[in-house]
Structure formats: structure tokens, C-alpha cells
Amino acid sequence: MSIAQNIIEIVKEHVPKEANEKVKRIRLKIGELSGVVPDSLLFCFDILKNGSALGNVSVEIEHVPITARCRSCDKTSQLEYGVFFCTSCHSSDIELLTGKELNIVDIELND
Ligand SMILES: [Zn+2]
Q1: Ligand 1 centroid vs 36 CA: distance in angstroms?
Q2: What is each CA distance from 83 to 19, 79, 87, 94, 100, in whole angstroms?
Q3: What is the CA 105 to chain-centroid distance, rounded?
Q4: Are 108 and 80 in contact (CB under 8 A)?
Q5: How many angstroms separate the alpha carbon of residue 29 from the centre of ligand 1?
Q6: Ligand 1 mean position, distance from CA 54 (Å)
Q7: Where are the alpha helices (DSSP H) in the chain?
Q8: What's the CA-to-centroid distance between 78 and ligand 1, angstroms?
Q9: Separation of 97 CA from ligand 1 center, angstroms?
Q10: Is the pLDDT assigned to residue 89 strictly greater than 80?
Q11: Which domains are assigned to the chain?
Q12: How distant is the alpha carbon of residue 18 from its chain centre?
């Protein structure tokens, strides 16, 4: 719930108050490791936006897979959730590249 609240706060910070009603769409990037469950985020967002100036906003979520670079063989692999070793050489000495994202990509306004 607090994440949905934060997103609304961020939108309000970035968009002038008189333009809040013009916000059409918010695009988010959510990594598989961010700990955010997109469905429950959308559910909370729907509850919070009702009755606010952001009542008509739709939220679009871009899922970011988990990728990591191996320090042993230097290959980059896409990992399943919970699997933290290189898919080429099975080394666990890996560096996480993506998957922890929780970003607002952009905020789209009606003209
Ligand atoms: Zn490797």
C-alpha cells in the first residue's frame, strides 16, 4: 500500500497541482526482485486514486527480468527468481545487473 502511496506522492511532486487532473498514464518499471507484486500494487493504486485528482490515471507496468553478469566467465544471463548462479558455468560469483528496479519511467498528460 505504501508503494502505491509513494507513487502518487511522486506524481504530485512532479506535476503542478492544476495539472493533476490531466495525468493520463503513469509508466512504471518493476524488477522481479523489487519485492513489488504488480497486481497488488495496481489494486492499491486503484483504491488510493479514487476520490483524488488522479482518479482517471491508468498505470502501465513494464516488468524487468533478473539479469546478472558472471565474474568468473563474464557472461550475462537472465535468471529465474531464486536462482543465483551463472547459467553458463554455474558460478555463484555474479553481479546483479537488473531486477531491483522500481522506477517511474514517465508521466503522461492529456493535452
Ligand atoms: Zn559464469
Answers
A1: 28
A2: 44, 6, 9, 11, 15
A3: 8
A4: no
A5: 27
A6: 46
A7: 2-14, 38-49
A8: 12
A9: 14
A10: yes
A11: 2-65+99-109 (3.30.2320.50)
A12: 26
Q: What is the pLDDT of residues 34-86, one digit of tens each?
A: 999 999 999 999 999 988 888 889 999 999 999 999 999 999 999 999 889 99
Compute CA distances 33 → 54, 57, 79, 93, whole Å.
Answer: 28, 26, 11, 18
The label of the residue with cell 485528482 reads 53
Q: Are 33 and 67 in contact (CB under 8 A)?
A: no
Q: Cα of 72 to ligand 1 centre, how many Å?
A: 5
- Rounded mean pLDDT of the chain? 93
Dihedral of alpha carbons 9, 11, 13, 18, sign? negative
